Each structure stands twice: as structure tokens, then as C-alpha cells.
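Box 3.1 A note on notation
Throughout this textbook, protein chains are presented in two layers. The first layer is the amino acid sequence; the second is a C-alpha cell string describing backbone geometry. Keep the layers aligned when reading.
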Amino acid sequence: MEIIVQQDSQKASWLAARLLRKLILEKPNPVIGLATGNTQLQLYKYLVQMHREEGLDFSRVMTFNLDEYVGLSPDHPASFHRFMWDNLFSQINIKPENVHIPDGLASNIQAYCDRYEQEIKEAGGIDIQVLGLGTNGHIGFNEPSSSLSSRTRIKTLTAQTRKNNAIFFGGEDHVPYHAITMGIGTILEARTCLLLAFGQKKASAIALAVEGPVTAMVPASALQLHPQAIIILDREAASELKHLDYYQWVYEHKPEWQKI
């Protein structure tokens, strides 16, 4: 696990965008796993900027999103379909047929989830999976107690997650109780996992995920088992890490060929 701490979320997001740009430039048919939420907004703005100013080509890129609320149509203002098209896909030259986002209106959810897993395999697996972090340590919608070997499936959201997301729905009463999400086992099969976390409210979850025990009660702690997990933080999110000085020292002394 590589811990990279930047001065602020802008610099952290720029570093993440450079990592994705490197993949897109170097691999003929890159497969990228994406996440939604305020944490990823600046990252997506930088990718759009790279497309417009540098001509970064997304025509060969295939994407798979982590999750979607059950019961929401793609055009619902709070759907993750809408978020991704508004903030990224509509502003780059990605092919619509290369975009995969879980279908919250699937009539047979289990069959749909099995098919989503198969589509990831047929694409050759995910090269880089972008992740956010819930304040309770969840990744995707894998809430505490989720199996560390879980696959894409339906999950019931915790009261805290619904409360955190109420702002997007005009009140907690309108937040769905369920979501389709990639499982932790699915996430760990990505060749690189790239987790972004910003702000003091994420500090406790980061400390548990990075330095605590590997436990289903902190789903993000499963990233400790991944051979290529990169955690990019701002100073506030990193503030409760006991070995922060060491992580910074390691990053500052990396050989040139290892740097992003």
C-alpha cells in the first residue's frame, strides 16, 4: 500500500489524473473503474481539461462504475448515471458503448449483477479502479460487515450512508435503501486500486483502513491485501495517521522511475 499525501485536494486530484493519463497513453485498450461523489469531481475536471487542452484520447477507454442506487432511472438527478454523464462522459470522446454503469432498474438484479461481473472479465479486467471512502470505511456501497470476497450484488445502505447522501435527494426520506455495488472481491481484482480521500471527516476512516486491522467492519482495510493499492490524501484526511512522517519520507525519496 502506497500512501501519498498532498497539500490539498486540488494537488491530490491532479496526481490521480496524471496516473490515469499515463495508463490511457500507454495501454491500447485501457479499462478504468470509476466512482461517483464530490471526492472525484476535481479528478474528472482535470481529465476533461487534459482532453480539451492536450487531446487526451478516450475513444479506446472502457469504463465500469462501482455502483448505482436501486430504483433510480438513468436520468434521475441523483443517479450515478446522471453524475457521470454530467461531470465526465459528455465532455470527452468516450464511446457510449464503452461505458458501463450498474442498472438500478434491472428487473432481475442477481442475474444482472452476474452479467456485470462477466462483462468485466470479458473486457480483460480493470486496470485502475478509482475509489472513494465513506466515513464508516465503506468502498463502493460495501457497508461494514460486507464479505471481503464479495462480488457485484445488491446491498442495503446503512442509516449513516443514507444520512450522508440525503443532500442529493432533498432529504433523507427520499434516499433509496438499496444499491447495486461491485463487491470487495471484485474491487481487489483490479490491477491497481486508487483511493482518494479528502477532508478531516475522512481522517478516522483512513487511519482505520490504512493502519488498523484488516476487517469486514472497515471494508476499505481490505486494500491492505492488494499488491498495488495507492492511497492519495490531502493533509486533513491524513491527519490521524500514526506513521504519516514515514509515508511522506518514502514518497519524497522514491526513485524517479517509480514516480507518477
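The beta strands are 2-6, 31-34, 62-65, 67-69, 99-100, 128-131, 153-156, 178-181, 192-197, 229-234. The first helix runs from residue 9 to 26.
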